[in-house]
Design a protein that fits this description.
This protein is of the alpha/beta class. It contains 25 helices and ten strands. The longest helix has 25 residues.
């Protein structure tokens, strides 16, 4: 391996070569905190010649290098130079603006203008909205998360620079001419501090060395996500065969776009870990890359990457149900998946991924899919949402084990894998007494709003289960229903503490218009309205002649017992 290193300033770095972000690199991901630290260290608190670490590159051509380490800093520096260029333009200093642009864009040996930093993943957004001297020809709306980071970072750098200039404008003791001179000096000072930043410039001989250095750097304490290491490993295993075509990189980009295009809390690191657990031996996310390297090689890398692309779709459909067009007969599956997101539980994800994979392949019937996902929903409602059991690694291991069992079983044994899991879930359920005791603590009112989504979920399940025999066949749109307090929060007819008013025993589901009409009326006025409406009433409300604290607690306990014994029985 041929390695050479030398101290260089950013001015020399930008003037001497062109730089490409290679296919194995991660997208730009600096947030406001990173940029603020960079600004404070290199501009605000620096007197010049500030050292910003190493920059590792490898030779592509005589004047073009791939960036192995330093991409985030080099991108941020380019963004800041773009901001300074715009600031010079805004104060009428076009020559200084063009001079600054020379650090971003310059002519090559063929006398063709070329950007010093070249990146494919954010093209054309970065080139048009950061690097270009003239107005952009494309939309400024970011299409990918990387572009969002770039836009937010660029805008924040613009704010920091403008803040320096605004302080000059606010001065009442100097003339407009002096203000102009001070603005020019301030911008020059910022520009020169950037260009005088120092790096240890490490140059490698070829791309193969770059893969090794990239992986080594980022498994020894560097802040790099496991997904970036996996991407590096796959691109090393799958070199492109044509200069203009890079199918493996395109597939990885498509997979990342599917995951990061969701409004749900999804990311590539978690996806890769959950995907791995659903098919391979159990490992922690921290040790995932080490395990993956032992299995994924040149012989199977293409298949593995294809699996990733396919699984990202299933993963997103499972955790972000809006991404899939669900058939009417699949509605129960969709509702169960949405419920699990309300519970904020993730240990079951590898199992869900395995189940939905088998369903999409036709290896599992819808009936079996409904049954197992309902069992997982019921378990986590009792175990996680209500009793808040401490979830040890044993739960995660159990789900991963049965996910692999399902994935690897022949057609005759897939049902056994599901039945085995259901039995284990039943065995791990807390007692009924523990469930009822914790259920009494659930609360929703104008004071306690944190559990609103869970409370509405519970009321919906309860209402749907017990009201079926009284319905005329008209579908109930529970998403349009609101929560009614039987004893109103502002009912002054008796004194009941707000913590009891918020208990589930004091709550009903009904449409918004009826809820609004009832307002804060006392129970004696509300009950006849309830009876004449299509609202489902259990016997505890129907037979009540008065509504007290004792009524609320008694009904809460009875609802808890019904939920445990019947509604969430699996």
């Amino acid at each position: 391996m041929n390695i050479s290193s030398i101290d260089k300033t950013i001015r020399t770095v930008l003037k001497s070569s062109y730089y490409k972000i290679p296919r194995f690199q991660r997208p730009y991901s600096w947030d406001r905190e990173h940029i603020e630290d960079f600004w404070n260290d290199s501009i605000r608190e620096s007197s010049g010649d500030y050292f910003i670490g190493s920059m590792v590159v490898y030779e592509i051509t005589e004047d073009t290098f791939g960036v192995v380490d330093g991409q985030q800093r080099l991108t941020t520096i380019t963004m800041l130079l773009g901001v300074i260029r715009e600031a010079f333009k805004n104060i009428g200093e076009d020559s200084l603006a063009k001079g600054t642009q020379g650090m971003i864009e310059r002519k090559d040996l063929d006398d063709q203008l070329n950007y010093v930093l070249q990146t494919e993943s954010s093209y054309p957004f970065f080139h048009e909205n950061v690097q270009k001297f003239d107005l952009s020809d494309v939309s400024e709306i970011p299409a990918k998360k990387e572009e969002e980071y770039i836009k937010k970072g660029y805008d924040y750098l613009m704010t920091l620079v403008n803040k320096e200039l605004d302080s000059i404008d606010k001065s009442t003791t100097i003339s407009d001419k002096e203000k102009q001179e001070q603005k020019v000096k301030t911008l020059k000072d910022i520009r020169d501090k950037i260009l005088n930043l120092k790096v240890i410039y490490i140059e490698l001989g070829n791309e193969d060395d770059a893969y090794i250095i990239f992986e080594t750097l980022n498994t020894r304490g560097k802040d790099l996500r496991v997904s970036d290491l996996v991407k590096n490993h796959l691109t090393k295993m799958l070199p492109k065969k044509n200069k203009s075509v890079d199918l493996s990189k395109d597939k990885w980009t498509d997979a990342r776009t599917i995951i990061e295009g969701s409004n749900a809390d999804l990311n590539m690191d978690s996806f890769l870990h959950h995907f791995w657990l659903s098919k391979y031996e159990f490992t922690t996310q921290k040790k995932l890359f080490k395990s993956l390297k032992q299995i994924v090689n040149k012989r199977n890398a293409k298949t593995f990457l294809n699996d990733i692309l396919n699984e990202t779709r299933i993963y997103r459909e499972t955790l972000d149900t809006s991404y899939r067009e669900w058939k009417n007969e699949e509605e129960d599956v969709k509702n169960s998946l949405q419920a699990l997101s309300i519970f904020r539980v993730k240990q079951q994800i590898p199992m869900l991924l395995s189940v939905m994979r088998e369903y999409d392949k036709g290896s599992l019937k819808l009936k079996r899919v409904k049954d197992i996902i309902n069992a997982i929903e019921c378990f986590h409602f009792i175990f996680t949402a209500v009793t808040s059991q401490r979830s040890s690694g044993g739960i995660s291991f159990m789900y991963a084990f049965h996910a692999r069992q399902l994935d690897q079983a022949d057609q005759n044994n897939k049902t056994k894998a599901l039945d085995d899991l259901k039995k284990k879930l039943r065995d791990k359920l807390p007692s009924k007494d523990e469930f009822v005791a914790n259920f009494l603590e659930l609360n929703y009112s104008s004071v306690y709003t944190k559990e609103k989504a869970l409370i509405k979920y519970i009321l919906t399940k309860y209402d749907n289960f017990y009201s079926k025999q009284t319905q005329t066949g008209t579908a109930i749109h529970y998403e349009l229903m609101t929560i009614e307090h039987v004893f109103a929060e502002k009912d002054n007819s008796k004194t009941i503490d707000i913590s009891d008013i918020g208990k589930i025993g004091n709550l009903l589901l009904m449409d918004e218009s009826l809820n609004g009409k009832l307002g804060n009326k006392p129970f004696s006025v509300k009950k006849p309205v309830y009876l004449n409406s299509n609202v489902y009433l259990d016997d505890e409300v129907k037979n009540a002649t008065d509504w007290t604290k004792e009524s609320i607690i008694e009904r809460t306990e009875l609802i808890a017992e019904k939920l445990f014994d019947s509604v969430f029985k699996f």
